Amino acid sequence: MMNIHHLVIMANQIGTFFASYPDQEEANSEIANHLQRYWAPPMRRQLLAHVAEHGGEGLAPLVLASIQANLVRLSPAAQALSKPVPT
What we know:
Blueprint (H helix, E strand, L loop, with lengths): L3 H15 L5 H15 L2 H14 L6 H9 L1 H4 L1 H7 L5
Helix pairs in contact: 1-2, 2-4
């Protein structure tokens, strides 16, 4: 289990990169894409729990907005359900 402080710092670094996008909707989407693609399910689970339990304390507003707008998509359980079943 990672320290939530480190996860918040990492998420904010991602947000800082995408905040430079002129289209804030695209930035919002790309933050969620990055978290979904590159963060392990336990990391996302911890971050989502931090948002639910502590209001995302320490997260940049853009990062928090992205997470809140994409809760279902970022949930490791939802992602597992959306994977195709091998035949």
